[in-house]
Design a protein that fits this description.
5 helices; about 70% helix; mainly alpha
Length: about 170
């Protein structure tokens, strides 16, 4: 399996986990429920843990596809730039969430989470979800929503592979 295939397989983990974590952080902020906050922290920790493999495999994918005729190098560069920002935000969010999660598990179960912790988790969760959402939006234009591929003729000499009829 090459880096391009790996990237396509794993890049959804940080997106989905950060969005679930941000949503749980919002619910925890509103309800002040410790269990919901623990879920948000655990989910954001996993989002942070999954972002670097997606980022690394994205670099491998770039090397694989940057010379293809339909790839807009500027769009590839924009996706890479936003991925660098998302990578840092999610790594920080994941590390702080892991520490907060660990500290909360060491305290009494009756203790309600403080407003500072709730606010911090909510802000980090929203920043994480927003940064990976933007990065995935940028990535979609590389191939899926690529204007060159949508409604444009193939380059001279391109032969469409025959499909099997059943």
């Amino acid at each position: 399996m090459d880096g391009h295939s790996l990237h396509l397989m794993i890049n959804h983990f940080p997106v989905i986990l950060s969005m679930l974590g941000a949503a749980a952080a919002a619910v925890a902020f509103i309800t002040r429920r410790r269990t919901v906050l623990l879920y948000a922290l655990a989910t954001l920790t996993l989002a942070g843990a999954s972002v670097y493999p997606a980022f690394w495999s994205g670099g491998e994918a770039e090397e694989k596809i940057e010379e293809r005729w339909y790839v807009d190098r500027q769009q590839l560069h924009e996706h890479e730039e936003s991925a660098e920002v998302a990578n840092v935000i999610l790594l920080v969010t994941g590390a702080l969430s892991a520490v907060s999660w660990w500290m909360m598990l060491r305290t009494k179960r009756e203790v309600a989470p403080g407003l500072a912790l709730l606010s911090g988790v909510l802000i980090l969760g929203l920043a994480s979800a927003g940064s990976v959402a933007w990065t995935s939006w940028q990535g979609g234009f590389i191939a899926i929503k690529n204007p060159v591929l949508i409604g444009s003729p193939a380059p001279p000499g391109f032969v469409r592979p025959a499909t099997e009829s059943h």
